[in-house]
Design a protein that fits this description.
Order of helices and strands: HHEEEEEHEHEEEEEEE
Number of helices: 4
Helix content: 10-25%
Low-confidence stretches: 1-19
Distance between the termini: 36 Å
Strand content: 35-45%
Strand order of the largest sheet: 3-2-6-9-10-5-4
Radius of gyration: 18 Å
Oligomer: single chain
Shape: globular
Largest sheet: 7 strands, antiparallel
């Protein structure tokens, strides 16, 4: 099979410039394809009056010099406006034994505002005050520098203000619609 044949089912009709019924098919296909990309699991947070947390896997480093990272957030998400308001965000990179936190911060029925952190062990980030989850693999605090339009999401580019790491432990991954634990020396891979 040629590269053209392989990619053809994923392309939109080149002649069609408006959205239509085929968009749902492309979206479903893209969702299936992207589910095969193993990602780390993070919890994005903001502090202050609009304090909020959200499980996310759309986080990555951009540059070491200057230190930049980005996260992608759906515009209707509560944390979207919170990040715009505080002009900052915190990121906790979850360890394999923190799956309960990933599920909790993905649950839309949890309390709103800072009350959602009442039953969670956290410390305020030294630069932003964003809640950083205790026991995570690592933490990053970012000051918002740019916001880019990305379809139904905003791409938040942040200058890394602080970064630190915890002890070496297995990482929590998201792959094919489920949580998994990353194999590390002495810790075999297993479903989470």
């Amino acid at each position: 099979m040629s590269g053209e044949q392989l990619l053809a089912p994923l392309r939109r009709d080149q002649a069609e410039s408006t959205s239509g019924p085929g968009d749902e098919m492309v979206s479903a296909s893209l969702r299936e394809v992207l589910s095969k990309l193993a990602t780390g699991v993070t919890v994005l947070t903001t502090g202050g009056e609009r304090g909020h947390g959200m499980t996310a896997n759309a986080f990555c480093s951009v540059s070491l010099d200057p230190p930049l990272a980005l996260c992608c957030v759906a515009r209707p998400a509560r944390i979207h406006e919170a990040i715009l308001s505080t002009r900052s965000f915190g990121v906790s990179l979850l360890a394999a034994d923190q799956q309960h936190l990933a599920k909790y911060f993905a649950d839309r029925t949890r309390p709103q505002g800072m009350a959602q952190f009442d039953g969670v062990d956290w410390v305020p980030g030294p630069q932003t005050g964003a809640p950083l989850l205790v026991g995570s693999l690592a933490w990053v605090e970012c000051g918002l520098t740019e916001v880019y339009h990305g379809g139904d999401h905003s791409i938040f580019l942040g200058e890394v203000l602080t970064s630190s790491r915890g002890t070496d432990r297995a990482a929590l991954l998201f792959f094919s619609g489920a949580y998994h634990r990353l194999a590390t020396p002495g810790n075999p891979a297993e479903p989470a």
